[in-house]
Amino acid sequence: MEQLKLIVGTNWAQSLIAVIIAFLAWRLCDAAITRFFARRFVSRFIPRVATYASLTKSILGVLIAYILVLSLLHIWQINIVPALWSAGVISVVLGFGAQSIVRDLLAGTFLLFEDTFDVGDGVELTTGNGVVSGTVEAINLRETRVVDSRGSLVSVPNGNIIFAANTTRLPTHIEFTIRVPLRSSIPALREQVARLAEAGAREGGADVDHLVVRVEDVAPDAVTFSISLHVARQHAAKVASLVRENIATKLQEEGLLPGAQPAGDGQPTSAPAQRAP
């Protein structure tokens, strides 16, 4: 009897130590994960960081709990082979019964880590039942929630997404023409127009990319240039008209376009005089 009490007491002590070690390990892992993601993304706000941190914590939590259970079974000298077989059978049954959930979780994992879209992005999600368009409200492993044009919150299971198009990250193409007097050689004019167009676009707040100036038409006294550029889609609506205005203003300041320029007192003055050759 005394020996039994000693064994039981020893087992309880070892179990208590195992639980304490598991708890401390979980607390250390939780703090380390939080610190890691805070340091890695401290300079920019990424809404999916919370999902990454939560997923990592969940995986480590399950792993620590699994090791703790095996340790307790070993301490109490319980044969774990039947338990492992039972767990395997249960896992197979649950796997067949929850195929859609597993598919959603796997698809959500790939969507998160491949950076397909983020919270606040405009998306077009093609599913088996149609296309869902709108702004991403939330992303998790199970589903993606999108606010459509009517303001409705649509929950799309990640496993049902066949194609995903991120409309926010696509550039917007802006193109317009400007007719300038033929006062010098066409290559020199084109180079000057390209320089002024780039300066005006950047002053308009556009993240300019692929700015191209082409000759559209030539007349005896004038040449028509086509100016095309790419602007980030999220800024296109507010900067497109401002970019055109700034480019025209730059061309006027250089005397390439006719028009009055405002003086310092607010009175209009004539266009800059043409330099003598």
Describe this structure in words.
- This protein has 277 residues and is an alpha+beta fold.
- It folds into three domains: 2-97, Helix Hairpins, CATH 1.10.287; 117-166, SH3 type barrels (Roll), CATH 2.30.30.60; 171-257, Alpha-Beta Plaits, CATH 3.30.70.100.
- It has six helices and ten strands.
- It has helices at residues 2-40, 49-75, 81-97, 99-113, 186-203, 233-253; strands spanning 122-127, 130-139, 143-147, 153-157, 161-166, 171-181, 209-218, 222-232, 261-262, 268-269.
- A hairpin with a 3-residue loop joins β2 and β3 (143-147).
- The radius of gyration is 33 Å and the shape is elongated.
Shape descriptor: elongated
Please state the second-level CATH architecture of the largest domain.
Orthogonal Bundle
> Unreliable runs, pLDDT <50, ≥5 residues?
262-277
Strand order of the largest sheet: 4-3-2-1-5
SS strand fraction: 15-25%
Helix tally equals: 6
CATH class value of the largest domain: Mainly Alpha
List SSEs in N-to-C order. Answer: HHHHEEEEEEHEEHEE
Radius of gyration: 33 Å
Number of domains: 3
Helix/strand structural class: alpha+beta
CATH topology of the largest domain: Helix Hairpins
Q: Roughly what percent helix?
A: 40-55%
* Ends apart, CA distance between termini: 118 Å
Largest sheet: 5 strands, antiparallel
Overall mean pLDDT stands at 77
Q: Got a strand count?
A: 10
